Amino acid sequence: MAHLLGAERLHLEFPTRTVFDEVTLGIDEGDRIGVVGRNGDGKSTLLKLLAGRLEPDGGRVTLRGGIRIGMLDQADVVDPGKTVAEAVVGDIEEHVWAGDAKVRDVIAGLLADVPWNAQIASLSGGQRRRVGLAALLVGDWDVVFLDEPTNHLDVEGIAWLAGHLKGRWAANAGALVVVTHDRWFLDEVCTATWEVHDGIVEPFDGGYAAYVLQRVERDRMAAASEAKRQNLMRKELAWLRRGAPARTSKPKFRIEAANQLIENEPPVRNPVELNRLAVSRLGKDVVDLIDVGVVYDHKTVLHELEWRIAPGERTGILGVNGAGKSTLLGLVTGAVQPTTGRVKRGKTVKIATLSQELAELTEWADQRVSAVVAEQRTSYAVGVGSKAVELTPGQLLERLGFSNAQLSTPVKNLSGGQKRRLQLLLILLQEPNVLILDEPTNDLDTDMLAAIEDLLDSWPGTLLVVSHDRYLIERVTDRQLAIIDGHLRDLPRGVDQYLELRKGVDAARAATGSRYGEGAPTRPAEAQLAGADRRNAEKELSSIDRKLERLQADIAAQHEKLARHDQSDYVGLGALGDELARLEASVADLETRWLEVSELLEG
């Protein structure tokens, strides 16, 4: 493989610290490199050095002659005076760019909901970020540097970006270097990982899963002071091997070595014990949404929705932006009142929400972290049953990555990631029995995400998570639901099933929709079913929708039976579990048929 770019003995200092010292790296054709590390250790700075946007204090970066470098920086902004079309394709004639399959794919993948002729100044921050990413990806580059490209993308957008980058070049051509905290994305796209820490860059073979394995091996040989870190990553590795079917079917690391490391590692959660504790804290009634509908300005957001939340339930909620996820959470918390139907809450329910806005910290902005935690509980139980241990708030802060020096820092001076961790700690110290996490991964690096997931593993309550982070959803929840066209659908096969359903919905709408957004060229007409065949297909689709709604209600009732059943009656629990599996299999079959009929209607 030909060499594209190299860094020799890079040295960089900021006024308060040395960022890099004697760092030597190389990028070859075919490299797909993910960059991980703690926030503030220099990941973004490394990309700027390699891309030529920042000059080192020592050493040099060398390029092969004629190579083209493209970069998306976190600070990159699009000219607000331009339109979306001008920012993405410039002054190229429409018949030219529209004839380029790559350009069409990028626009459809990132900008389907963005008005094509809108001024950049009129767009939201997330839309501007996607326009900037699209403008980069339509270009031809030998090396692409991406700094947090999955920010402002939903699950579908992240899946699209992964597929685009995997197919952008031939196997041994081009190079990609990406900084991201999205661990699913790292595993899906990257074939090598660089860890930035302590002024160095340490290379590992493979994506995130392989990096975790090698790091566990490294930590096994480290000093005893590394024991806590080792145990946490060992638990992470155990979940990677046991909990995610996509990884266990095609592991990217050595199976035997992984099995030896995790053979004595217990499952990440004890669902029976957690459920027992949840019932004792919550009672049998949590929140029931019964035939609930919500209408805003004559637009139906949620329609005849039924969801009976069980004690100890751990559910991830998926849906495109605007699908109604925030509305659904508002119904649970009471912030939103239903237009139709009713919401029933248990008498002992105590709900807390980890919001995106960090509003909980406003009143403590000028106080030191140590003073804030001192006002809370003096101890917090971590673990389940006989393994539970009492930790002080200070010990919890240490577990979440705070150093002793940071305890004396005013809250307003904390980084975004530190504020997010403090926010979670303050909520947990209130001991709610229903916890809602709304995009909790913002501003957190992979190590801190693992630490928070470890803390949530032993949390004995009902957990509802809304996130575009696929890894987090699969890691901390046991069930996934999707909001599609105002209805709540169970996803027995998780995120993969959701993406399949969304693809079917998009295909069904494509015949009447615009390919590139408002003001762009419309999709050409395609052959479609006609006459009696079309009417029969539409009837069958409607029938499937009704059957799916009934089955989802049956599944919700079955979950309730499981929650209320004697947890020591394993035979009875097994029978109820078998019935639940049968119902979920029926849903899967119907959803497969739904996709087939949708494709027929599309033509």
From TrEMBL:
Keywords: ATP-binding, Coiled coil, Nucleotide-binding. The keyword Nucleotide-binding applies. GO terms for molecular function: ATP binding. It comes from the Bacteria. The keyword Coiled coil applies. Residues 534-593 form a coiled coil. Residues 512-534 are annotated as: Disordered. Residues 5-223, 287-510 form the ABC transporter domain. SUPFAM superfamilies: P-loop containing nucleoside triphosphate hydrolases. This is ABC-F family ATP-binding cassette domain-containing protein.
